[in-house]
Known about the structure:
Elements: H1 11-22, H2 28-40, H3 51-58, H4 62-75, H5 77-80, H6 97-108, H7 120-129, H8 138-147
Helix pairs in contact: 1-2, 2-4, 7-8
Amino acid sequence: MRKIFRIKLSSEERGELEQLSRKRNAAAHKVLKARALLLCDEGEDGEGLKDPEIIAKIDIAPATLQRLRQRCCEVGPLKALERQKQVRVSRPRKLDGEAQARLTRLACSDPPEGSNRWTLRLLADKLVELEVVESISHQTVGQELKKMKSNRG
Length: 153
């Protein structure tokens, strides 16, 4: 496989990565990535090993090594060690602030006839009936109430 992203570290960068790879209290993912970058280094002091050799030596996944090389070329070797912030939220929230307030009011109100208290399923069904949300599971209702430290009795 041809290398697309070649890494040539300066002596300062190499020194910082070596220091980080020897630390006992550094995060394991940072140490592993620092060691991988040191082995990838094609500069004057670097070993410049091929990917299969690096993978065998430090037990890193090929895709991880490829992404690490790419990120190192894009943002620099020291920033490549940091975890990336998530660009977007995985899933949009079902209940916004107003919907949470309506859920709280509903949970604190009297339960429907035939019930001693509100259950999570009753609350979920009522939120759909009131058209607060299009659909919602009882588990989501429970998580929202738990976040608000609600006690339904």
